Amino acid sequence: MRKTMSFAAIHFAVAFTLGYLFTGSLLVGGVMALVEPACNTVAFHVHERAWRRLERRAAQSATVAA
Fold this sequence. Notes:
Distance between the termini: 33 Å
Number of helices: 2
Order of helices and strands: HH
Low-confidence stretches: none
Largest sheet: none
Shape: rod-shaped
Strand content: under 5%
Helix content: over 70%
């Protein structure tokens, strides 16, 4: 979970900076920094959990086959 939170912090900062630089608006930068990274952070967390599950299944299959 710490890795996910670290990723989120960096993502929020990048989204805000780019939103602000492209539009010149603190409001747009702030909205972009909240909405887009929040969605991606959830997706990243789900992806990591699914990936770990696949790795466990592969390890179990290797153990059974051996």
